[in-house]
Amino acid sequence: MEPTTPDEDGINFRTRKWVRPEDLNANGTLFGGSLLRWIDEEAAIYAILQLGNGKVVTKYISEINFVSSAQQGDLVEMGLRATRFGRTSLTMRAEVRNMITRQSILTIEKIVFVNLDADGQPLAHGYSTITYDRDRIPSSMTTA
Ligand SMILES: CC(C)(COP(=O)(O)OP(=O)(O)OC[C@H]1O[C@@H](n2cnc3c(N)ncnc32)[C@H](O)[C@@H]1OP(=O)(O)O)[C@@H](O)C(=O)NCCC(=O)NCCS
């Protein structure tokens, strides 16, 4: 992931995807399931980096608004922004847009991840602000 300048909503658009034939629906446009898989993975990585813990899970995804479509060969970019740090949770807002036209493809107002302990129980993470750095990368993920 490379850092980018946040848009007017404060969202950082980091990951880009190239819409391939296996990502298409019966209408020949981008399949919603592929988009959701991309977003869930992006949100997991974001939560790991914000909460400093590799053991985070998706708890809740709010209404998904498929604003417009994308075609095979299109370049799309995904963005996330933390909107609330709870005690054990992190809430994010997501947007996927066409990289060239910047037209919105999908928005999700609320994606909630929960920080877990070794037994899979909710664990207080202790953070309340967004980091734009890599200072919270879990030590278990770095080599000595
Ligand atoms: C994640 C899990 C351990 C949480 O257990 P739980 O009993 O709901 O735990 P809690 O009630 O203590 O809630 C934990 C946090 O989630 C939040 N939360 C719970 N339900 C929520 C909901 N419906 N919407 C938004 N946030 C919710 C709580 O507010 C709390 O956040 P906070 O500590 O920041 O206030 C449990 O629900 C679980 O294992 N779910 C399956 C997760 C999973 O496998 N996801 C992958 C997709 S299949």
UniProtKB/TrEMBL annotation:
Keywords (alphabetical) are: Hydrolase
User: Does Hydrolase show up as a keyword for this record?
Assistant: yes
What sort of enzyme, by top EC class, is this?
Answer: hydrolase
- This protein's source sits in the domain of life called Bacteria
Task: Recall the GO molecular function terms of this protein's record.
Answer: fatty acyl-CoA hydrolase activity
Organism classification: Bacteria, Bacillati, Actinomycetota, Actinomycetes, Kineosporiales
* Similarity comment: family membership: Belongs to the acyl coenzyme A hydrolase family.
Name the record gives this protein: Acyl-CoA thioesterase
User: Would the keyword Hydrolase turn up in this protein's UniProt record?
Assistant: yes
Annotated SUPFAM superfamilies: Thioesterase/thiol ester dehydrase-isomerase (SSF54637)
Per the UniProt entry, the Enzyme Commission number(s) are 3.1.2.20
Residue limits of the HotDog ACOT-type domain? 9-119
Q: Where in the sequence is the signal peptide annotated? A: none
